[in-house]
Design brief:
- The complex is a heterodimer of chains A (114) and B (112).
- With 114 residues, chain A is an all-beta fold.
- Chain A has strands at residues 5-7, 10-14, 19-24, 29-37, 44-49, 55-58, 61-65, 71-76, 85-93, 103-104, 108-113.
- In chain A, the strands form 2 sheets. In chain A, strands 2, 4, 5, 9, 10 and 11 form a 6-stranded mixed beta sheet that branches. A 5-stranded antiparallel beta sheet of chain A has the order 1-3-8-7-6, with no helix packed on it.
- In chain A, a hairpin with a 5-residue loop joins β7 and β8.
- By secondary structure, chain B is an all-beta fold.
- The mean pLDDT of chain B is 96.
- Classes of the chains: A mainly beta (114), B mainly beta (112).
- Chains A and B meet through β4, β5, β9 and β10 of A and β4, β5, β9 and β10 of B.
């Protein structure tokens, strides 16, 4: 089936550092979404991207929809302890048969050392 | 505005039993989709409903089924439970089928 490759798998950083993670695929996507999930909870939507090349910010978070429509990245600036969690990328493939269905990356586990 | 509500939060069932999970979407949202999350397989798409009709389906056996009511609330059912069905089941709602999806807190199902 379709695959989203998310990297890195985990990160352990110092508070105040910037973080970058990305997702790549061999397939073309119409939508990219970034989520954060805390243990035992559902994913919380951080940023939604709908156009190739789109760059969107949400506070200290910035995400971009790749020009080729096959990738996306998420940056977190000046990390703080509450940024700890698992970050997921998710995308909706192009094509009417893929509407309503999200494909998820494997997740990036972020740990922040105070 | 209330978020996506899933009930119950936790369930313990025995192999062979069946289970029904419920999801109330955000008010005004018409699309509801379901996902299974396990440590080994990650988040996997189960199915999506819009206007009371299943519009898309993932690669899960027929034991997994769902439905959507006229008020957009949705239920999913798993029959003849297997140990491997133990997972966090997540429901997401969207205004339309191609807009951003908001997730509920999930139902943690344990099959013993």
């Amino acid at each position: 089936g379709q695959q989203l490759n998310q990297s890195p798998q985990s990160m352990f950083i110092q508070e105040g550092e910037d973080v970058s993670m990305n997702c790549t695929s061999s397939s073309i996507f119409n939508t990219w979404l970034w989520y954060k999930q805390d243990p035992g909870e559902g994913p919380v939507l951080l940023i939604a991207l709908y156009k190739a090349g789109e760059l969107t910010s949400n506070g200290r978070l910035t995400a971009q929809f790749g020009i080729t429509r096959k990738d996306s990245f998420l940056n977190i600036s000046a990390s703080i302890p509450s940024d700890v969690g698992i970050y997921f990328c998710a995308g909706q493939l192009s094509g009417s048969s893929n509407t309503g269905k999200l494909i998820f990356g494997q997740g990036t586990t972020l740990q922040v050392k105070p | 505005k209330a978020g996506v509500t899933q009930t119950p939060r936790y369930l313990i069932k025995t192999r062979g039993q069946q289970v029904t999970l419920s999801c109330s979407p955000i008010s005004g949202h018409r699309s509801v989709s379901w996902y299974q999350q396990t440590p080994g397989q990650g988040l996997q798409f189960l199915f999506e409903y819009f206007s009371e009709t299943q519009r898309n389906k993932g690669n899960f056996p027929g034991r997994f089924s769902g439905r959507q009511f006229s008020n957009s609330r949705s239920e999913m059912n798993v029959s003849t439970l297997e140990l491997g069905d133990s997972a966090l089941y997540l429901c997401a709602s969207s205004f339309n089928r191609d807009t951003e999806a908001f997730f509920g807190q999930g139902t943690r199902l344990t099959v013993v």
